[in-house]
Amino acid sequence: MAVLALWLVLLAYAPVLPAQEPAREPEFLLLEVRLEQSVLSGAIPAYEVGEHTLLPLGELARLLTIAIQTQPREGSASGFILSEDRGFSLNLDNASVTRAGKTETVDPALVLAEPDDIYVAVSLLEHWLPLALEIDRASLSLRVHALEALPLQARLARERLGDRAGTRGGYEDPGYPRHEQPYRLLSMPFIDQTLTTELRRTNGRPQSDAAYTAYLTGDLLGMESSLYFSSRQQAPSPEVRATLERHDPGGNLLGPLHARSFRFGSHSTSSVENITRGIRGEGVTLSNRPLTRPTSFDRQTFEGDLPPGWDVELYYNDALVGFARPDAEGRYRFDDQPLSYGRNDFRLIFNGPLGQTRVEQYAFPLDQSMVRPGDFQYSVTEHRDDDGQSRTIAQFDLGLARSLTASAGLIRAPAGGDEELYTTLGVRTFWQSLSLGGGVVQAKDGGSLAELGVQTRIGGVAVDASRIHLTDFTSEVFPADSDPIRSHDELRLSGSLPLTSRSRMPVTLEATRDERESGRANTEVSARVSAYVHRTALTNTLRWRASGDIEHATGSLQVSRRVRDMSLRSQIDYLLGSERDISSLALSADKYLADGYRGTLGIAHTFASPETRYTAGFTKSLGRFGLGVNASYVDTGEIALGAQLFIAMGRDHRRSDWRFDARPMANSGAASVRVFMDDDHNGVMDADEEPLQGAGFMVNGGRHQARTDAAGIAHIDHLPVKQHVDIGIDTSTLIDPQWAPAIEGLRLVPRPGSVASLEFPVRMTTEIDGTVYLLEDGVERGIGDLKLELLNDQQEVVARTTSSWDGFYIVPGVIAGDYRLRLSPQQLQRLGLTDTGTRELTVSGDGSFISGVDLMVLPSSPTASAQYSRQVLPK
């Protein structure tokens, strides 16, 4: 009842909490952008308004190298499309667009001006630009089909991005300096909270229940800490788990151990192929393996925290392969997803009860799982599961050559009610277009296992095949049996078939066969086909099992469709063969109503029972928190009514205030970024220096929506954790073209429940201009195509430019300091020219242009002038 009372108090005071962000009618999305096989951006913002999807014109043009720039404040855009004779101009004041000299009117409902960009409906973009844009709402991706050759495509072809199996185009490391975020002994945690009440009537008897769930993250004792707490009125004891951990992608933890991660407390073990399965419990793990490396060479397990009311979908190479809701400990897990030779792109799509959507993307090229020559990688785990059984897992990898990795392991794990000790040895290599691997496992009781596997591609099909031979071998994966398995064979084929001229249909076929000591064989075959057509995602899976004379066949069809602003999802499970029938059917609809309201309806029928369940609900997002009510009715007579409150909170120490959000925030990172005018060039904001309002940012190469306020501060939240994130100033948002950041950006590793404080000083820059002359026979004339270099006081080249046809040059964006301007010595030597000396310059930093800095060169021999004319001057 205490939880119920707390919920009622919060509900009573909820209306006095002002919304942090006013509810908007358009639905906000983040989309991955693909051009052919290259990923151009992991997430660009988009809006859905009714049946239209609005994309950011400026950001899309930047990604596709189309010369169009937007001015959101002025409500305009200008530039050209592929060639300068195809000019482009958009003016929202008079709702018009001009293309190649022809002016058309624009429907204002299809254009949205936001502070960061101008968002334009897909139908208009396809009309204006030589593009076909396909939005896969199920996997939150945007596929771009170029109808004319783009400059970007030529560059990608030159760089051969994506030609090697498993590679992807896209964001590249800009080389920003690393920002170190110190750990604290104790920090104020971020908290995701859900309060629920429920009234239920079953068999004429009313029951009530209340629940409170909290997930907290923050710094504790110099480490990352997390605490999960869940309590129900009807449960005898609460569910609690706590973890302390640290992660460093650079491998600088624990001194000489060069660990990249260590963790102790509540967590799951990783599975060990053929020996153990992943299981929850308590323990400690230490590893120096790269954080982005798969959990095993050809398998990857995905797990994480999942708040109440949320669900997560797992996509593999654009095919839906898994669906999960939070378990009793508030977590999800997808075990041992296979990796093939070639492309292994995974996408986790998280769906919240208030219509929230969050995407995590992972790519695991198989060849990058190899250990570099001479590198030694390890992971050690000591663990005790919830049933009290203990496990020790120690695994080691050594890079022997560029394409040769050896592995070994020592595993202590339960097997058949007893404890068994296993030793493993293995080797894996890449040879031409093949990945070959083999290994042996020896148990202390004398049992053994030998495995040989091959992975390759034949045409566009990835082929994975393996054979395991067992000799008196038992483990969690191969339990003891009166008729033990003697051999285990697996075959997996995955690829895609053309569906339309712009889309393909992912197809996967898997087969396993176990041959037992008696000669009896068990065979399983499954096939999965996925497609996305007309905003409808379909995945159909068939499974056939045979054991002796007994056969069993089942199927499952999942359909997801977007109709205007409504999402429809359905699943049909059915039986095949002589028992052909539908076993269960489920259908749900989710519709955005208005002003933050969202309605849901659902029906599920089980034919075996039989039983039909009807559900309905409404949720309301108020920015700082969310409310929900729901009802269900089962045709057996059960009725239930419930209500929920969703609220997340965290403290920004720079502002010393609390931030509230309906979206969870405890499992992501954040940064508080301050932008200011650094007049004295000391990199610190002094009392008399001006904060800059309206500055925007680039996060991992994409424009972010955050803008600095009057204090020059922006809060960038929901950053990915345990990986590098690059944040820099979007210079196009600085109102003075002479302003330039003192540093291009910073690289940090965000961590849950912590806000990184970043400082971006901005300085006034200037331009240096002048003319390069050639003195010959007493006559001076300007010469072009000579390269100039600007060196700082450390004798480092900080800027380069080239003189134009008449010798005139400009060096833009120069900040205060002492410099030396020279002509390129290498070019002068090649051309047989001699300069008359460098120019020493001092830039004061007040923005005044420095003009008339002329340079002169002389022929070093009588033939130098002719040589220059042949190599430089146009014919």
From TrEMBL:
InterPro entries: Ig-like_fold (IPR013783)
Taxon lineage: Bacteria, Pseudomonadati, Pseudomonadota, Gammaproteobacteria, Oceanospirillales
SUPFAM superfamilies xref list: Cna protein B-type domain
Annotated protein name in UniProt: Carboxypeptidase regulatory-like domain-containing protein
